[in-house]
Amino acid sequence: MEYDFLIVGSGLFGSVCAHELNKKGKKVLVVDKRGHLGGNIYTENNDGIQVHKYGAHIFHTNDKYIWDYVNSFVEFNRFTNSPLANYEGKLFNLPFNMNTFYQLWGTKTPQEALDVINQQRKEIVAGPQNLEEQAISLVGRDIYEKLIKGYTEKQWGRACSELPAFIINRLPVRFTYDNNYFSDRYQGIPIGGYTKLIECMLDGIEVRLNVDFLKDKELLTKLAKEIIYTGPIDEFFDYQFGALEYRTLRFESETLPVENYQGNAVINFTERQIPYTRIIEHKHFDFVSTKHTVITKEYPSEWKLGDEPYYPVNDNKNMELFKQYRTLAKTKANVHFGGRLGEYKYLDMHLVIKSALNMVSEL
Ligand code: FAD
Ligand code: UDP
Known about the structure:
Distance between the termini: 18 Å
Shape: globular
Bound molecules: flavin-adenine dinucleotide, uridine-5'-diphosphate
Strand content: 15-25%
Strand order of the largest sheet: 7-6-12-13-14-11-15
Helix content: 25-40%
CATH topology of the largest domain: Rossmann fold
Structural class: alpha/beta
EC number: 5.4.99.9
Domain PI-PLC Y-box: 247-312
CATH superfamily of the largest domain: NAD(P)-binding Rossmann-like Domain
Number of domains: 2
Number of helices: 13
CATH class of the largest domain: Alpha Beta
Largest sheet: 7 strands, mixed
Keywords: FAD, Flavoprotein, Isomerase
GO molecular function: flavin adenine dinucleotide binding; phosphatidylinositol-4,5-bisphosphate phospholipase C activity; UDP-galactopyranose mutase activity
Radius of gyration: 22 Å
Enzyme class: isomerase
C-alpha cells in the first residue's frame, strides 16, 4: 500500500487530519470531488475581495488552544459579526440587545426593556413546546413577529409552531448595548481568506481534486491502510436505509460597480415576503479597499438528492436513520467517519477542528 491514510474531503475536517498525520510522519493522500480545496469554507478571490462561496463564515471560539492553532497557520483580522435586521424597510441591531429594544420601543434602561418583555412573555403560561412559544417566552411577541417568525419560516420551510425550540437557543439576548453576535472570547476572519488557511494546512501533502471517492472506491481503497471519510455517511453506504434530510441554500452573487453597497457584512431580511434571508457583502469581512463590491443573496430551500447538503434536519426521524448508519459504520474497521457530513451534525468550525484533532489522537 502506497499511503498510510487516504483522506476523502479537503474541507476543514479532512485538512486538519491531513496536517496532523503528515506532521506525525504518516504518508497521506487527500482526494476531493470538487475542483477546489476547502470544502464549504472555500473563499474565491474576486479582484481583491475574498468571496465566501458557500455562505458567510466567521470564526469564533472560546477555546484558546483552537484559536492559537488556527493563528499558527495564518493571521486573523479583528472582524466582529454585528448583523442588522431589515424588517419592512426599518433597520434593527442584532443580536437582540439594548439597541434593538430602543429601536423597537424607545426603552433606554435594562429595567424599562425588561418590563416590556416581561409583559409580553405572560402569554406563554406553560413551558415552551415549540420554537414560536420559545421565542415569545424569551423576548416577547413584538420581536418574535418582526425579527424571528419570517426569517425562521424561510430558513426552515415550515411554521415556527412546528419547529423545535432549540433552533433559536443559539441567539443571544442581552441587556447591554452590545451588537456582537457571538459571545465567544476570540473571533475573526483569516486575512486573505479561508482558502489560504487550508492551503497552509495542506502544504507539502499530495492532493487530488475532481476525484469522487465513491466512483472509484475499490481502486482508491487499495491505496491506503486507513481511510478518513468526510462525505455524507448515507451516501457511503449507497443510501441503503434511505437518505438523510437537509435544508439547502441557493446563493445568488453579483459584482457591482460601487465601493460600498450596504455598509455592513451581513443584513438579514426578516419579513416573509422577501424570498432571501440575508445579503452578504463580502468585502466587509476582510476590510479591503476596492472600487467594486460583491454581494450574495441567500435563498433557503427544500433539499433533494443531488443538491448541496447544508443544514442537517436533526429531528427524531432523521436521528434514528443516522443511528442506523453509525452502527453500520462501526463495522468498517479501517474507515473513520468525521466532519459535518460524516457526523450528520451542524458543527461550527472550531468544533470541527476539535473533533478532527480528537480523531487523530485516537488513531
Ligand atoms: P465540508 O466543508 O463539507 O467538507 C467535506 C468535503 O468532502 C467537501 O470538500 C466535499 O467536496 C468532499 N467530499 C464529499 N464527498 C466526497 C467524495 N465522495 N469524494 C471526494 N470528496 C468528497 N461555522 C462557523 O464556525 N462559523 C460560521 O460563520 C459558519 N457559517 C456557516 C454558514 C453556512 C451556510 C453553513 C452551511 C455552515 C457554516 N458553518 C460555520 C459551518 C462550517 O461550514 C463547517 O464547520 C465546516 O465547513 C465543516 O467542514 P467539513 O470538513 O466537516 O465539511
Ligand atoms: N434567527 C431569526 N432571525 C434572525 C437571525 C436568526 O429568527 O435575524 C433564528 C433562525 O431561526 C435561525 C436561528 O435563529 O435559524 C439561528 O440563527 P444563526 O444566525 O445562529 O444561524 P445561521 O442562520 O447563521 O446558521
